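Lecture notes, part 5. Sequence design as translation. It can be helpful to think of inverse folding as translation between two languages: the language of shapes and the language of residues. The source text, in structure tokens, appears below.
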């Protein structure tokens, strides 16, 4: 029998001993389960010389480790990581990514890693990505800039895919959307929370941010010309009335980036104004783009009633759109009230292609859904295993 001297820290007063305690000659002093009641008793025991069998100590430590792992597994079952939590965490993760600006911009590897994980998250459930963009009542305005960058990136991804752009251009556009506002990310949160119009000092910072973002990214090692040019030009207009240089010869990526930037800004709430209804934002975009391919791609991607939209059904029920279908007018809806408009405990899925559940129109009053968790709408959405993510991607909807 090999003995190990008993450390004082291993004995918990008032709790049963997990092993036998022996003296130096292996004679039993205290049996397993004995309770040491006081510091005086423990002092006397250690002074006499207290040891435990090293094999017995290892066995107890192994059982304790198994118990801890079991507790961790139980905790994970109670609060498993899921798509909802990852979307909720995305703004905080981007905040940490940009935390050392301007002294230490994130590296190209870090930016690419974040963009890749964001694309993977979108591909697990595109409808949920759109839901996250539409339902922003619970988003903290302090993170406005970070959420806006994420939403613009998602829209760029979906828009460019629908237009069947090459993969390299899509990635350049997504990277540009994530980084276009790097110099004003915190300022955007401040402005979202303020109850007064833009100040002159803020206007100066905003006017300078495209060129400053390009400078920071170049210093961080970014050499992708499409990425950098899109950022430099994303506030320019074809009529020459944009900034910072009043250019008219804009790249396709710059125009697409501006469309995503403006559209996602309009549908995002601030303290000074509410979010613009999706339908009105789409109408404005269509007019400004003269019904071009970019506005058409955005409108087709969101549909007439995108996930997250609150609608009234012909049955009298109020519901939340949860999934698009092949018909832009007939999404799948989760009813959250009965036919009298009274809130219900459980949601019921309604197929709005059926006449009795057809959508009458959007509901302006969003009070019922202001704090409703997406789990109530979708049920629990667990992450797909990494090896099956590609197989689980939603098919591309036809134009």
């Amino acid at each position: 029998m090999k003995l190990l001297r008993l450390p004082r820290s291993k004995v918990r007063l008032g709790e049963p001993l997990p092993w036998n305690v022996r003296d130096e000659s292996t004679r039993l002093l205290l049996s397993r389960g004995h309770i040491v009641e006081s510091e005086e008793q423990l002092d006397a025991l250690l002074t006499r010389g207290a040891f435990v069998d090293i094999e017995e100590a290892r066995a107890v430590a192994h059982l304790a480790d198994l118990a801890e792992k079991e507790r961790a597994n139980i905790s994970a079952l109670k609060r498993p990581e899921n798509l909802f939590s990852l979307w909720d965490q995305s703004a905080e993760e981007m905040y940490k990514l940009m935390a050392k600006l301007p002294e230490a911009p994130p590296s190209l590897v870090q930016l690419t890693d974040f963009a890749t994980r964001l694309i993977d998250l979108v591909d697990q459930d595109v409808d949920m990505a759109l839901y996250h963009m539409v339902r922003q009542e619970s988003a903290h305005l302090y993170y406005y800039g970070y959420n806006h960058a994420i939403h613009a990136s998602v829209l760029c991804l979906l828009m460019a895919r629908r237009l069947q752009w090459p993969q390299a251009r899509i990635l350049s556009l997504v990277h540009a959307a994530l980084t276009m506002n790097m110099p004003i990310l915190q300022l955007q949160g401040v402005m979202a929370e303020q109850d007064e119009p833009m100040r002159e000092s803020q206007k100066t910072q905003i006017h300078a941010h495209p060129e400053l973002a390009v400078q920071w990214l170049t210093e961080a090692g970014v050499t992708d010309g499409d990425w950098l040019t899109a950022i430099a030009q994303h506030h320019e207009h074809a009529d020459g009335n944009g900034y910072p240089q009043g250019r008219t010869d804009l790249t396709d990526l710059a125009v697409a980036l501006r469309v995503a930037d403006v559209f996602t800004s309009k549908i995002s709430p601030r303290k000074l104004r509410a979010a613009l209804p999706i339908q009105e934002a789409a109408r404005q975009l269509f007019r400004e783009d003269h019904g071009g391919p970019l506005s058409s791609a955005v409108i087709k991607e969101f549909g007439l009633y995108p996930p997250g939209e609150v609608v009234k059904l012909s049955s009298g029920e109020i519901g939340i759109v949860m999934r698009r279908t092949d018909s832009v007018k007939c999404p799948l809806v989760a009813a959250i009230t009965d036919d009298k408009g009274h809130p219900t405990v459980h949601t019921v899925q309604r197929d709005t292609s059926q006449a009795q559940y057809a959508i009458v129109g959007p509901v302006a009053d969003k009070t019922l859904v202001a704090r409703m968790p997406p789990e109530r709408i979708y049920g629990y959405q667990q992450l797909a295993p990494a090896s099956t993510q590609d197989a689980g991607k939603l098919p591309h909807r036809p134009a």
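The translated text above is only one of many valid answers, since several sequences can fold into similar shapes. Residues 83 and 290 are 36 Å apart (CA to CA).
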